[in-house]
Amino acid sequence: MKVCIYGAGAIGGWVGSGLAQAGCSVSMVARGATLDALQLHGLRLRAGNHVTSQAVASSDTPADFGVQDLVVLAVKAPSLPEVARQIAPLLGPQTLVLTAMNGVPWWFLHGFGGALAGTRLTSVDPDGTLAGALPVQRIVGGVVHASCSVDEPGQVCHHFGNKLILGEPSGEKTGRVQQLAALLEKSGFKVAVSDQIQKDIWYKLWGNMTVNPISALTGATTDLIMNDELVRGFISQVMLEAKEIGARIGIPIEQQPEDRHQITRQLGAFKTSMLQDVESGKALELDALVTVVKELGQLTGVATPFTDALLGLARLKARVRGLY
C-alpha cells in the first residue's frame, strides 16, 4: 500500500513509522533540516531507550511521489492552505485522506449538524479552498490520543498513548474505514471506529482549546495551569460555553469541566504543542482551536464571552510574536 505522510513532525513521524514497519511503502513530505535528516538517516522513532529507523521516500515536492492509496494529513492547521495548493498529484480516484490533526476541520459540519449540516466554517476555510482541494468524499476523520515530540529533525519520540479513533464524516461504518482500521491495527496502533467522529473531535477540543492557548500566553506547563484556581475557573467557563454549543449541534458532552480537569492533571508537567510552537517560532493554530468555537457560537446563538476573551488575548500574543 502506498502511503504519503504529509507533515513529518511528531504525529506524522509516529504514524509513518508504524505504517512503514507494517510493510507499507511510505513517503513523507518534508523540507529543510527534516528532509535532509530523512534522506540521510531514514525516519527514526525513539520509545524509551530504543530507537528504530525506517527507510522512507522523502521530498519537499509531493509530485515526486505520484498517486497514493492513503494520504495522512499530520500538519498544523495554518499549513493547510499550502497543502491544498500542492496535494493534487497525490490524489487518484480512490485515494483516502486521513486527517490526523488537532482542532475542528473544514469538513466538520458535513454529515451531521442539524440545521447547520453542510455549513462551511469560514474561520478554518475562509474561501472554500480546502473543501475544493480536499472534498469530504475523500476524508476519513482521525483523532489522535498520543503524546509525541520531535527530538531532532527526522527523529520522533513517542512518550505515551497509542490510540487512534477513525470515522467517516457521515458516521457510516464503511468498508474503507474498516480496512483502514485493520491496517493501522497491523501497524501497532490501538484503533477504534467511531459512529460520530465529530463528537470525538469535539471532546478532544474541549480540553485543548483552553490549555493550549493559555500555555502559549503564560509559558506554563499543564500542572501549573491546573493548580491555579483562578485560571482553572476561567477554563471551566470557556468549556461550559463549548459544551452548550456542542449540545445544540448534536454532540453533547456528559462530563463537567472538573471531570476533564482531572484527566488533564494526569499529564503532570506537560508542555503543550502550542507552547512548543511559541518556543520554536511557529504559527499558532488558534483558528482551528478557538476562533472556530466563537464562530459556532454565533451560528448556534450561544454567547461566548469567555471564549472571546481567551481568543483575543492569545491572538494578540501571537501577533506580537509574528505567529498569527
Quick structural overview:
By secondary structure, the chain is α/β, with parallel strands linked by helices. The protein has twelve helices and ten strands.
CATH class of the largest domain: Alpha Beta
Outline: globular
Tally of contiguous helical segments? 12
Overall helicity: 40-55%
User: What's the alpha carbon Rg, rounded to whole Å?
Assistant: 19 Å
Query: What does the average pLDDT come to?
Result: 96
Q: Which CATH architecture of the largest domain would you pick? A: 3-Layer(aba) Sandwich
Compute the separation of the termini in Å: 37 Å
CATH topology of the largest domain: Rossmann fold
Let me know the CATH homologous superfamily of the largest domain. Answer: NAD(P)-binding Rossmann-like Domain
**Major sheet summary line:** 10 strands, mixed
Describe this structure in words.
- This protein has 324 residues and is of the alpha/beta class.
- It folds into two domains: 2-195, NAD(P)-binding Rossmann-like Domain (Rossmann fold, 3-Layer(aba) Sandwich), CATH 3.40.50.720; 199-320, N-(1-d-carboxylethyl)-l-norvaline Dehydrogenase, domain 2.
- Helices cover 44% and strands 22% of the residues.
- The protein has twelve helices and ten strands.
- It has helices at 10-21, 32-41, 80-86, 129-133, 175-186, 197-218, 222-227, 229-249, 257-265, 273-280, 286-300, 305-320; strands spanning 2-6, 25-29, 43-47, 50-54, 57-59, 68-73, 91-100, 139-152, 155-167, 190-193.
- Strands 1, 2, 3, 4, 5, 6, 7, 8, 9 and 10 form a ten-stranded mixed β-sheet that branches.
- Helix 4 (129-133) links the parallel strand 7 (91-100) and strand 8.
- Helix 6 crosses helix 10 (273-280), helix 8 (229-249) packs across helix 11 and helix 11 packs antiparallel against helix 12.
- The two termini are 37 Å apart.
- The mean pLDDT is 96.
